[in-house]
Amino acid sequence: MKRTISAPYREAVIDEIRKASNKLEQDQDLKPLADAAGKAKIVLLGEASHGTSEFYTCRTALSKMLIQEHGFTFIAVEGDWPSCYEVNNYVKHAPDAKSSMDEVLQSFDRWPSWMWANTETRDLVTWLREYNRELPESKRVGFYGLDVYSLWESMDEIIKHLKQTNSPELEAARKAFACFEPHAREGQNYGMTAAFFSETCQDEVVQLLAQLEAKRSGGTARTHEALLNDEINGLVAVNAERYYQSMVRGGPDSWNIRDRHMVEALNRVMEFYGSAAKAIVWEHNTHIGDARATDMLADDMVNVGQLVREQAQQPDDVFAIGSGTYRGTVIAGDAWESPLEVMRVPPAMKGSWEELMHEAGAHDQWLIFKGAESPLFHDTYGHRAIGVVYHPHYERGNYVPSVMAERYDAFVFYDESHALTPLTPVHA
């Protein structure tokens, strides 16, 4: 958290927020924000928690505008590639897609399943499927997962597809994945063995990925996306192997491997869509807000927001929109893999960015930092981040020191937010 600020300074910040902000009373109020973001090639849509309804519905509203009015070609999310690829098949009306929405969303069966198995995601997926219905196959909007956790699921998907197509790479895949079998499908078991006994499967999965990359490069249009699926699953295997090793060792490496993987997966999907590719990325603020504008920089941590800005050819190629709330409720657990609960989000701490926005106007609002001249937006404020494990009674540790105008290009604020609606029962 930022040190206590003086009353005159505080009032000056609140006044600047009032001048820059726009009321948010209905989805259409977001159109100027979508228009500003729509010039970019990659729009990053953040959330302050993985369990708040408004963050999902806001991103859905912005995504619809970006797709319909600005030609965005796919949505990529902080989710597992195999599960999200089931969604992709469904919204694109693929011949091998699952037959119902419920069956598709049941693919999200790993904790925290509520991140994507919720009614807010169901509404987005329903819209995407309808939007794609009359479009030619090459113009249909995709839905992909960028995360690195699905090591065994990704290996299963590769074997399954290589079997179906009688691929010559099947034997190489079996050999690579046999290396992981002694670890009982537990990433931590593998990480312990690799970290402390130098018994890794790295060479095998790297060699397989190279074969899958080469295969996609020479693939036909008809099989191109299936080959992309194999390639990204192979990439997951390579980077998950590295991730689980580093997780056991500790330090910033595991975080950095994960975020670098997400950017690499994003880049490969962008390449698949060609020169017209325009991506919408849904992830937590801690991933999409530039790490260099937070205390992550001092800890040698990078994130998606920083990496895509650094690789962009033009500054306007990336537009990052963060979000936050003053108070409300959220879906989270009190420990990893514990039952999900509806938890209270207490009023934001005094002097935090969320509290200052509340004081500027106790209503939903948004503002654009990009091009903002006020130096007050370039100071450091505490900015709340809620994880899938959340303890409302220990709020101070949930605030990330952030230079808001450098972390994001814009910000959407909800004065009072509400827990999303999971498809599974909530723990009473």
From TrEMBL:
Q: Which CDD domains match?
A: Ere-like (cd14728)
Xref: InterPro entries: Emycin_Estase (IPR007815), Hydrolase/PRTase-associated (IPR052036), UCP036794_erythomycin (IPR014622)
SUPFAM superfamilies for this protein? EreA/ChaN-like
Entry superkingdom: Bacteria
**A Pfam match:** Erythro_esteras
Query: One biological-process term from Gene Ontology?
Result: response to antibiotic
Q: Which PANTHER family match?
A: ESTERASE, PUTATIVE (AFU_ORTHOLOGUE AFUA_1G05850)-RELATED
Q: What is this protein called?
A: Erythromycin esterase-like protein
Q: Which organism is it from?
A: Paenibacillus taihuensis
